[in-house]
Amino acid sequence: MTSHVRSFKGVTPKVANNVYIDKSSVIVGDVELGEDVSIWPLVAARGDVNFIRIGDRTNIQDGTVLHVTRKGEHNLDGFPLLIGKDVTVGHKCMLHGCTLGDRILVGMGAIIMDGVVVEDDVFIGAGALIPPNKVLESGYLYVGNPAKQARPLKESEKAFLKQSALNYVVLKNEYLQE
Fold it and tell me: pTM for the complete prediction?
């Protein structure tokens, strides 16, 4: 265990095979990273008052903050952070207590708040704000503040969602070889 991947209250992050975690990132507590995940510079992932799960081949880019909402009297389960497979989270995003499906691209600087559910195959534009408890329907582009459904995704855009994640698998493998 290194100083940037550390336990909290006796719970240690679980890291699958072939994962890249930049040394400037901080991964704390109840966090699980799937196969081929990449965590880029200056990411903070705090699974301290609830848990974080990140699926296979997902990449979390520079300066992103990942956090959760505690369990409480008015929200018995709180809001963990669940991120699916083949997800690309752009630079400087904030994901807080939300659920993201598979094959999603979160544009740079986007903020996704508590209780949001993003279905599979969604593109979220840069700078978008997704207010609490919204559901983003599969197969669409969402943009704006607050974000609104802009249009259906083209087939080429849907294919890019998976390709973006695979591009980061290749890049993280290059970093692991350094």
Answer: 0.96
